[in-house]
Design goal:
single chain, about 475 residues, alpha+beta, Cathepsin D, subunit A, domain 1, Dna Ligase, domain 1, seven-stranded mixed sheet, 10 helices
Length: about 475
């Protein structure tokens, strides 16, 4: 035989009525295929078939059980949709099927074919090769089998199959009421750059069907599709309902970057400080009391003035007051009590000098950090309060503290705010929906890309374990 320009052999290519094949572009390194010249089109076993993506670039994702009788082994796949056409099976039934194009490898040859997707779960062969799949110089020997080299299903039990599997297109939902927010737009742009489909879902317009057998999330009159991952961007004013929606996705089994419990705990400032204390994570001394009779005691507990009075529902530095004298502290506390507002009192770390450190933790690692510096005469360094962000090198202790804080709330993505005090880093806050704009600019890190690295690692399936036979 001679070789063509692609490295494939030319000349007659012999196939029996059954052969081993691979579809490398779909992450299927070994399949048994039935060769049927009586059939015009080829078919691949697929289930959970779901179209997605924009109308001008439609895609389909589906799952395959490559080994007959092994429903515990599932390979998720995705591909561009070439067509959708009616196909009549050998028993006379007509079905409307999606058509994809992929490369097939058999022996020393690889060539493109069109394949229809259909559930062949009851069939002995996961793939049927019709006559359209064969070009010139192919000889079919109906009385022979496995004319080409045999493959093995053992490949599915190796980590190698995971390492060489193609990058699977993911369908990801961003729960956000602010579609045009910088962080939301960055997430969408980075996801689409990687070939994923990222949909922004307004959390307030979600509603839920809660039942034991088929819990669902609905949106704009329709049931939401199955997502590979959900990225919560829940605003502080919408925590209760937002976390309820996340709990529903968790019930369905969808991977959520941050879980409902962690978001709820981080938003409750009193509970958050109790969690930090339970895990022995450094923080400014904090005090809380419900009775106005305990105002003086609160002030004493945090070491006296100057001190910070902070509303429990404060965000972005709003509702945070510095009381520089004891009298000022008493006045602010009395005013907050008069408004029936819940608040806590906190030691003022003077040596921080209007600066704090924002550490962004993703997947248990600090992936970026920045120093936030307050305006002159201002103690709050929040960027929303006019503070500026700049690059910073953090210490090993600061890195470990940030990671421990995120882990304490079981958050896979968190912005951990630290103060540099004379006796080590103090955690001010753990934010479950950290912004990307300031920290990307200050650190020059592609934070959105690092988030997708973590998502892809989490939702990509691991190789199946080899099934063992029981003794006796």
């Amino acid at each position: 035989m001679t070789m063509d320009g692609t490295g494939n052999e030319t000349g007659d290519f012999r196939l029996g009525w059954e052969e081993w094949a691979a579809l490398p572009g779909l992450g299927l390194p070994a399949l048994k295929a039935k060769v049927d010249t009586g059939a015009k089109t080829s078919a691949l076993h697929a289930f959970d078939i779901e179209p997605f993506g924009p109308a001008d670039r439609p895609r389909v994702r589906f799952a395959v059980h490559p080994i007959p009788g092994r429903e515990d082994l599932t390979i998720p796949c995705s591909a561009d949709i070439v067509d959708r056409r009616e196909v009549t099976s050998s028993n006379g039934e007509t079905e409307l099927r999606y058509v994809i194009r992929c490369d097939i490898a058999m022996g020393t040859r690889t060539w493109p074919i069109e394949v229809t997707l259909t559930d062949r779960g009851s069939m002995a062969y996961r793939m049927l090769l019709g006559r359209q799949a064969f070009g010139d110089n192919v000889v079919i020997s109906p009385g022979e089998s496995f004319c080409q080299p045999r493959l093995s299903y053992d490949v599915y039990h190796s980590t190698a199959v995971r390492e060489v599997a193609p990058a699977r297109t993911l369908r990801i939902a961003v729960l956000s009421r602010e579609e045009h927010n910088f962080s939301t737009r960055r997430i969408v742009a980075e996801g689409e750059k990687r070939g994923h489909v990222v949909e922004v879902i307004d959390t307030s317009r979600c509603y839920m069907a809660i039942n034991a057998l088929a819990p669902e999330v609905h949106y704009d009159g329709q049931r939401l599709p199955r997502y590979d991952a959900v990225i919560p961007r829940i605003g502080a004013s919408f925590t209760s309902y937002g976390t309820a929606v996340i709990r529903q996705f968790e019930t369905i089994g969808t991977y959520c970057v941050n879980g409902s419990d962690g978001i709820t705990a981080s938003r409750d400032k009193l509970y958050a400080h109790q969690i930090l204390a339970r895990h022995r994570i450094g923080m400014p001394t904090t005090a809380f009391a419900a009775s106005p009779k305990d105002n003086d005691s609160l002030i004493e507990l945090v070491g006296g003035a100057p001190l910070i009075v902070k509303l429990l529902e404060s965000t972005q530095g709003k509702g945070v007051v510095l009381a520089e004298t004891r009298k000022a502290a008493q006045s602010v506390i009395s005013a907050f009590r008069g408004l029936k507002a819940s608040f806590l009192v906190q030691h003022f770390v003077k040596e921080a000098a209007g600066e704090d450190i924002r550490c962004l933790v993703i997947g248990g690692k600090v992936v970026a950090a920045m120093r936030r510096v307050a305006e002159p005469g201002e103690f709050r360094s929040n960027l929303h309060q006019g503070g500026r962000a700049e690059a910073v090198r953090i210490t090993k202790t600061e890195r470990e503290t940030a990671v421990r804080a995120a882990r304490a709330f079981r958050l896979n993505m968190a912005g951990v705010d630290l103060l540099r005090s004379d006796d080590g880093p103090k955690v001010l806050e753990v934010n479950s929906s950290p912004g990307f704009e300031g920290i990307e600019k200050a650190s020059s890190k592609n934070v959105a890309a690092l988030l997708f690295d973590e998502i892809e690692k989490r939702v990509r399936p691991a190789p199946a374990r080899r099934r063992t036979r029981s003794a006796g």
